[in-house]
């Protein structure tokens, strides 16, 4: 069930009243007006000592206020709890090395079994442990106690390293499936589940459209209804309320029609509506 290479995008055919244009869509990078700072960064702090976890949270909030970078953070008291609750939604993980029940290195090894890409930074008060972080592809390490200026440098490095807009993490039975947004043709919801239709397969996860819509809209998708998100780069033809995406035909609900066409028009011009 591997991910196939990205398929070549088709010629765009779209019909507005009085217009019949064919436009070639180039496979370029992020659209005009997009910046990494516009997107929410999700951070996990795995730290058993409350004094340090509180300090880290204060630093995260200060960083967000100073840089205007949307950031959210969640604290886990030990590695075992973090792994039990891990769902692939974090982009950056700060993990203490010395913790009860399961140390940070063991937790990181188990993490890498299900997610090889998430950005990992170790926290430690003993520098001799830090070098072992590279065994699990850690990006960096931080020596405690931590000054804010150094934390800011480390977090900026991590944010520069990740590319939030490139992929989405889908929990599956044997771990986490990481799929590029460019490979997802459309997403539909039904009975408390989300179905991600990709070039290679269809993946299911429990959740609602409300949980993912903002993220997908900022990555080149448009809502055709309350239960359907379409990848605009796969649109082959659109006329009125009818849209063809990768050979499949969909109808745009009346209340979503204006927003859908606005997003498609901006996307065709090289941008993405927020």
Global structural class: alpha/beta
Question: Radius of gyration, rounded?
Answer: 21 Å
The percentage of residues in β strands lies in: 25-35%
Calculate the terminal CA-CA distance, rounded to whole Å: 33 Å
**Per CATH, which architecture of the largest domain?**
Beta Barrel
Order of helices and strands: EEEHEHEHEHEHEEEEEHEEEEEH
- Determine the mean pLDDT: 80
CATH superfamily of the largest domain: LytTr DNA-binding domain
Strand order of the largest sheet: 2-1-15-16-17
The biggest beta sheet, please? 5 strands, mixed
Q: Can you count the beta strands?
A: 17
Q: How many domains, in number, for the residues?
A: 2
Please report the first level of CATH classification, the CATH class of the largest domain. Answer: Mainly Beta
Gross morphology:
elongated
> How helical, in percent, are the residues?
25-40%
Instruction: Pick out the low-confidence regions.
Output: 1-37
Treating each run of at least 4 consecutive H or I residues as one helix, how many helices?
7
- CATH names the topology of the largest domain as OB fold (Dihydrolipoamide Acetyltransferase, E2P)
Describe this structure in words.
The protein is α/β, with parallel strands linked by helices and about 270 residues long. The protein has 2 domains: about 10-35 and about 165-270, LytTr DNA-binding domain (OB fold (Dihydrolipoamide Acetyltransferase, E2P), Beta Barrel), CATH 2.40.50; about 40-160, Response regulator (Rossmann fold), CATH 3.40.50. The protein has 7 helices and 17 strands. It has helices at about 50-65, 80-85, 105-115, 125-130, 150-160, 210-215, 255-270, and strands at about 10-15, 20-25, 40-45, 70-75, 90-95, 120-125, 140-145, 165-170, 175-180, 185-190, 195-200, 200-205, 220-225, 230, 235-240, 240-245, 250. The strands form 4 sheets. Strands 2-1-15-16-17 form a 5-stranded mixed beta sheet, with no helix packed on it. β11 and β12 (about 200-205) form a beta hairpin. α2 (about 80-85) runs parallel beside α3.
């Amino acid at each position: 069930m591997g991910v196939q290479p990205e398929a070549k995008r088709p010629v765009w055919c779209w019909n507005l009243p009085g217009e019949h244009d064919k436009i070639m869509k180039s496979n370029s990078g992020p659209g005009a007006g997009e910046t990494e700072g516009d997107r929410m960064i999700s951070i996990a702090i795995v730290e058993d000592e409350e004094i340090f976890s509180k300090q880290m949270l204060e630093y995260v909030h200060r960083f967000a206020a100073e840089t205007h970078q949307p950031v959210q953070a969640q604290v886990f008291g030990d590695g075992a709890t973090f792994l039990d609750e891990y769902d692939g939604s974090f982009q950056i993980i700060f993990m203490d090395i010395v913790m009860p029940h399961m140390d940070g290195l063991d937790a990181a090894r188990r993490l890498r079994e299900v997610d090889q890409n998430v950005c990992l930074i170790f926290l430690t008060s003993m520098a001799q442990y830090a070098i072992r972080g590279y065994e699990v592809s850690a990006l960096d390490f931080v020596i405690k106690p931590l000054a804010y200026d150094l934390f800011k440098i480390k977090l900026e490095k991590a944010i520069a390293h990740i590319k939030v807009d490139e992929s989405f993490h889908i929990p599956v039975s044997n771990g986490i499936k990481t799929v590029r947004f460019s490979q997802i043709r459309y997403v539909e919801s039904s009975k408390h589940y989300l179905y991600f239709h990709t070039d290679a397969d269809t993946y299911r996860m429990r959740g609602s459209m409300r949980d993912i819509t903002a993220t997908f809209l900022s990555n080149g998708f448009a809502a055709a209804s309350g239960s359907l998100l379409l990848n605009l780069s796969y649109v082959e033809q659109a006329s009125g309320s009818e849209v063809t995406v990768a050979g499949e035909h969909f109808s745009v609900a009346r209340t979503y029609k204006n927003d859908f066409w606005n997003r498609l028009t901006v996307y065709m011009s090289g941008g993405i509506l927020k």
